[in-house]
Amino acid sequence: MSAHARIPGPLSRAGITAAVTAATLAGTVLIPSAAPEAEAATPASKALKVAASKKGAPYSYGAAGPNRFDCSGLTQYSYKKAGKKLPRTAAAQYNRSKKVSAKSRKKGDLVFFHSGGSVYHVGIYAGEGRIWHSPKPGKTVRKERIWTKSVRYGRVR
Question: Which of 68, 121, 142, 152 is labelled catalytic?
Answer without folding.
Answer: 121
